[in-house]
């Protein structure tokens, strides 16, 4: 009976996700001026399973958006895309502009035009800042791009280390992640707030990466305290999911019943 319940729950999650991808933005598609799409390569579930090599190049990725996040092949650090520039943040602390020929196993990008800008004039933790954003959302069932820019009294980040084949699952790979605490820094948090039904396809809830104003340091944001700045929200109604057509993705078992627990373990926050 327990196995049947897990199978039924998995089918329901899959069905909700497929229906959302197929029908979620129908109204917006009829109005070209309102149509907004997030382009995503592969899935978070595949990344959890240790599928760290993809075929999508950074050059191709940037044709789909000027804003986003992800990682690089071999799980070589963190990616943050701002104003059309893809930054490669490595575990050794170095940052450089990614080559257009670099490839990614997982990334999400979009064209970012804010619908809402919220000034921040009093200090706010991650929990407090995201709570304010939540009160300004049209619906919890849509996708939102989030850009938070300003002065931070603290930002705690992690940066995954480059892996070698055979690759371990993400829960093991992130156990050796490099963590850094920034103090009194100006910079930008960029990422997405995904609906709960996207868990496993994406990261449900908030997924944010940080880079400082000098574009010299950053990583996956685990915690922060914003002193002053702005929070911008962009609403998206479409998700273009590009799945690998070859390689280990085709044989991977992506039906894990503890996705939320594993994602929380790897993503933190």
UniProtKB/TrEMBL annotation:
Signal peptide: none annotated. It comes from the Bacteria. One of its GO terms (biological process) is acetoin biosynthetic process. Transmembrane segments: none annotated. It catalyses: (2S)-2-acetolactate + H(+) = (R)-acetoin + CO2. InterPro entries: Acetolactate_a_deCO2ase (IPR005128). It is an enzyme of class 4 (lyase). Its EC number is 4.1.1.5. GO terms for molecular function: acetolactate decarboxylase activity. Keywords: Acetoin biosynthesis, Decarboxylase, Lyase. The keyword Lyase applies. Pathway: Polyol metabolism; (R,R)-butane-2,3-diol biosynthesis; (R,R)-butane-2,3-diol from pyruvate: step 2/3. Belongs to the alpha-acetolactate decarboxylase family. NCBIfam families: acetolac_decarb. This is Alpha-acetolactate decarboxylase. It comes from Dactylosporangium siamense.
């Amino acid at each position: 009976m327990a196995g049947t319940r897990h199978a039924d729950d998995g089918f329901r999650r899959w069905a909700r996700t497929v229906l959302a991808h197929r029908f979620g933005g129908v109204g917006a598609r009829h109005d070209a001026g309102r149509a907004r799409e997030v382009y995503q390569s592969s899935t978070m579930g595949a990344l959890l399973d240790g599928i760290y090599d993809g075929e999508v190049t950074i050059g191709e990725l940037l044709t789909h958006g000027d804003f986003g996040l992800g990682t690089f092949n071999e799980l070589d650090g963190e990616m943050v895309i701002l104003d059309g520039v893809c930054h490669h943040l490595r575990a050794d602390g170095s940052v450089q502009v990614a080559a257009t020929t670099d490839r990614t196993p997982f990334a999400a990008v979009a064209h970012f035009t804010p619908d809402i800008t919220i000034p921040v004039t009093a200090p706010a933790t991650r929990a407090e800042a995201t709570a304010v954003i939540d009160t300004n959302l049209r619906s919890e069932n849509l996708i939102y791009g989030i850009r938070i820019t300003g002065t931070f009294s603290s930002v705690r980040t992690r940066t995954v280390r480059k892996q070698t084949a055979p690759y371990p699952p993400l829960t093991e790979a992130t156990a050796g992640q490099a963590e850094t605490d920034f103090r009194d820094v100006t910079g930008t948090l960029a990422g997405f707030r995904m609906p709960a039904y996207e868990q496993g396809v994406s990261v449900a809830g908030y997924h944010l990466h940080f880079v400082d104003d000098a574009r010299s340091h950053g990583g996956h944001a685990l915690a922060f305290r914003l002193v002053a700045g702005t929070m911008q929200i962009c609403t998206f109604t479409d998700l273009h999911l590009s799945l690998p057509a070859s390689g280990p993705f085709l044989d991977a078992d992506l039906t894990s019943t503890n996705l939320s627990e594993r994602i929380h373990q790897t993503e933190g926050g």
